[in-house]
Structure to design on (105 residues):
């Protein structure tokens, strides 16, 4: 697996998008756009242009969860909700980029 340096959350998200099939990207984009609010599974499916009752949608959610990109929780009303995982909202450290040494005079 190749590591890609990222300097912003957008770059982190783009790195994930480049590795995932398009249907998973649509789900992930909807989760990221809704963050920090959770989204009901049916609303997420609609936002991602998928059927909430299809096995493909359920399998895609499971795949994202397996990668640590989607988190499931049950709110007080026992309604199943999902949100983007904390891994997609990490605080990136400020990194000083190396500079070329000054030319000798």
């Amino acid at each position: 697996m190749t590591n890609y340096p990222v300097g912003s959350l957008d770059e982190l998200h783009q790195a994930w998008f480049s590795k995932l099939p398009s249907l998973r990207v649509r789900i992930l984009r909807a989760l990221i756009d809704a963050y920090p609010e959770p989204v009901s599974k049916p609303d997420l499916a609609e936002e991602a242009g998928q059927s909430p009752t299809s096995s493909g949608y359920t399998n895609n959610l499971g795949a994202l969860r397996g990668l640590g990109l989607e988190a499931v929780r049950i709110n007080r009303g026992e309604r199943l909700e999902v949100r983007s995982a904390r891994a997609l909202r990490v605080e990136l450290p400020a990194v000083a980029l190396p500079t070329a040494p000054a030319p000798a005079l």
User: Anything to note?
Assistant: Residues 9-88 form a domain with the Arc Repressor Mutant, subunit A fold (CATH 1.10.10.10). The chain has one domain: 9-88.
